[in-house]
Amino acid sequence: MAELGLMSMGVKETYGGTDAGALAFSLALREIAYGCASTAVMMAVTNMVAEVIQYFGSEVQREQHLPSFGSGHYRTAAFALSEASAGSDPAAMLSTAQKHHDRWLISGSKQWISNAASAGVFVLWARTSEQGNKGLSCFLLPAGTPGLSLGKPEDKMGLRASDTLPLELDGCELPLDALLGQEGQGFKIAMHALNGGRISIASQCLGIARAAFDEAKAYAKEREQFSQAIANFQAVQWMLADCQTELDAMELLVNHAAARKEQGIDYSQAASMAKLYASEAAWRICNRALQIHGGYGYTREYPVERHLRDVRATQIYEGSSEIQRIVIGRSLLS
Ligand code: CAA
Question: Which of 22, 134, 144, 240 is in Cβ range 3.0-4.6 Å of 258 for a Cys bridge?
């Protein structure tokens, strides 16, 4: 994937990236998710980390890390924000970073970290002061840093080829220039990154839902009951009609958010709307696709049960549907 330029799609060519733009990135993610939703998560999170380093990193940090995304030296990268008791509310995190002479000492634990097992670098958040969300800072933590240990992979319902692990940080020592952006800017960096990440998840939804829909359409034409293809029944046609309508609506919302990002216009509300709608519509589409397959859809013999399991996560990660509604609501009223 790195050879194809898929792991550094937002990175400038001077740093070895593809610099393809937000819309092209979204289109590529849809195609990868059509084949494998887990691979799409690895791609989405890795690109999100690369973009955050490019946007907030110093020139030295960019030169140090970004070429490793395009070359594949970093197989993936990880976004270490959440903790056991700080998921929807990252400002409640407990991990700390303390300045000690010429080092940062980082201690605590992280939860739900996608790509942790294969990441070459982590962007990691820790508390540098007690000032709520203004007390968070962001760091670049290379894999293999002494004191960093990986926990047992989560046994997830779906996205089973994508690893999700907890992390332990036991006095990890980092140089002072491992700070990404300014001290206390961590929350804003996370929100900025997640705005882009939400377009990625909405793109992933499009790929998964289209895969399930294509399976359902093909099956409906081939499966016969009452001496005819079930596609002849209006009940099935209506389900397919609803799927196509929702797929088109998803696509318009995702394209709109990606186009705003590419044009440099504020896209936080558009990204949340795309993610909210796409993740909930994709769930309905995968569920209808399974229903059209009847009992066979409930077995591992057909891929629709995998699509349904995979797509469920999209209503949860990178901000649950409830969080997206908060972001949209606050933006409408601000
Ligand atoms: N874009 C830009 N700025 C934003 C923002 C956004 N989407 N959301 C909030 N902000 C800004 C606010 O404008 C505010 O700025 P000022 O201080 O200048 O006024 C500041 O951030 C604080 O905002 P709030 O007061 O609204 O903060 P809050 O604590 O009430 O929380 C929240 C806001 C929207 C609920 C936020 O906590 C949130 O997005 N939570 C969800 C976290 C999340 O998505 N986690 C995903 C984990 S990572 C993951 O899943 C990756 C993976 O591996 C797959």
Answer: 22
Using a 10 angstrom Cβ sphere, with 0-12 exposed, 13-18 middle and 19 or more buried, the burial of residue 333 is exposed
270 lines ligand 1 (CB under 6 A): no
Atom of ligand 1 nearest to the CA of 87: 45
What separation in Å is there between the alpha carbon of 128 and the centre of ligand 1?
A: 18
Residue 141 and residue 172 in contact, taking contact as beta carbons nearer than 8 Å: yes
- Cβ atoms within 10 Å, residue 225: 11
Cα gap 228→222, rounded to integer Å? 9
pTM of the entire predicted model: 0.97
CA angle 246–247–252, rounded 5-degree value = 95
Q: What is the pLDDT along the chain (334 residues), one digit of tens a residue?
A: 999 999 999 999 999 999 999 999 999 999 999 999 999 999 999 999 999 999 999 999 999 999 999 999 999 999 999 999 999 999 999 999 999 999 999 999 999 999 999 999 999 999 999 999 999 999 999 999 999 999 999 999 999 999 999 999 999 999 999 999 999 999 999 999 999 999 999 999 999 999 999 999 999 999 999 999 999 999 999 999 999 999 999 999 999 999 999 999 999 999 999 999 999 999 999 999 999 999 999 999 999 999 999 999 999 999 999 999 999 999 999 9
Report the alpha-carbon distance of residue 320 to residue 305 in Å, rounded.
22
Instruction: State the Cα–Cα distance between residues 20 and 288, nearest whole angstrom.
Output: 34
- According to DSSP, the β-strands at 136-142 and 76-80 are unpaired
Give, for ligand 1, the residue of 194, 265, 279, 325 to mutate: max count of ligand atoms closer than 8 Å to Cβ: 194
State the DSSP H helix or E strand holding residue 149, giving kind and residue range, or none if neither. Answer: strand 148-150
Say which DSSP state 153 is in: P
Phi, psi (deg, nearest 5) at residue 86: -140, 80
Residue 25 to residue 161: CA distance in whole angstroms:
21
Catalytic residues: 318
